[in-house]
Amino acid sequence: MDRTSLIAELNSRGLRDEAGTGPLYKRLAQALAGLIQEGLLKAGAALPGERDLAEALQVGRVTVRTAYRDLLASGAIESRHGSGTFVSQHVERIEQSLWRLSSFSADMRSRGREPAARILSRTVSAPAPEESFLLGLRLDEPVLRLDRLRLADGQPLAIERAVVPIKFLGEDAVSEGSLYDALAGNGFKPVRALQRLTAVTLDPSSASILNVKSGAPALLIERISRLEDQRVVEYTRSHYRGDAYDFVAELRIGEDL
To answer: Are 88 and 212 in contact (CB under 8 A)?
Structure first.
């Protein structure tokens, strides 16, 4: 919706109607919220600045500022420093089982969504001492460090930082596809993994990459994956958006209870 259409639509909703109830800023906030709920204002759409909207609607700037403040508090809109005010980008929550070992790409395809990856950094180097211990490597055995942004239908969902011994992949393997597919293609398919989940908040850099506010909640998942012969094939630290993921596990009562 362009600016002219937005102003016309807001005026058509009786903002200046003397019979209207409640403060003017409340009526403006409700009208904008209605446009969002009806899909006329799309997720990610930019809203006019306070001064521009106030002048176009012939209302006080404080009225617009207070209306925007109400919408910010409800999560309907978001303010991006240096960019302006936008309709919030809500994501469909994903329910992820803790009992099944699968790749991000396979998970998304099983839900009918299109997975993608954007490489943030890619280096080959010697392992750090703790990585050497976790991966069962000598300090002179190189590893691939692959940091990627994982997306579904173009929506950023997770930042994945993987460390994999070069001997399992080769220096040129893996770009934007599945890491597990690349490992399996080389004959090193992971068959089991240990995962640890921790609730964290995102630092400004990670939040910017995931298109959420700094300090937004996230799930840190540390995973150590093994081959059939118990060798460690992958160590990954991933930050998943807290507003997008629910991790679930089925529990059974033991026979001795």
So the answer is: no
For residues 250 and 198, which has the higher predicted lDDT (pLDDT)?
198
CA dihedral sign of residues 194, 200, 204, 207: positive
pTM for the structure as a whole: 0.65
| 94-97 and 245-248 beta bridge pairing | parallel
126 three-class SS = coil
**63-97, pLDDT tens digit by residue?**
999 999 999 888 788 887 778 888 876 666 676 76
Distance CA 162, CA 148 (A): 8
C-alpha span between 65 and 21 (Å, rounded): 19
Range list of β-strands (E), 14-68 = 46-47
Work out the average pLDDT over 135-160: 91
CA distance 237 to 235: 7
CA distance linking residue 46 with residue 59, whole number of Å: 20
Question: Where does residue 53 rank: exposed (0-12), middle (13-18), buried (19+ CB within 10 A)?
Answer: buried
Cβ neighbours of residue 235 closer than 8 Å, sequence gap 6 or more:
131, 134, 135, 162, 163, 164, 222, 223, 224, 225
How many DSSP H helices and E strands does the chain contain? 9, 11
User: How far is the first Cα of the chain from the last one, in angstroms, to the nearest whole number?
Assistant: 61
Q: Provide the 3-class DSSP secondary structure of residue 207.
A: helix
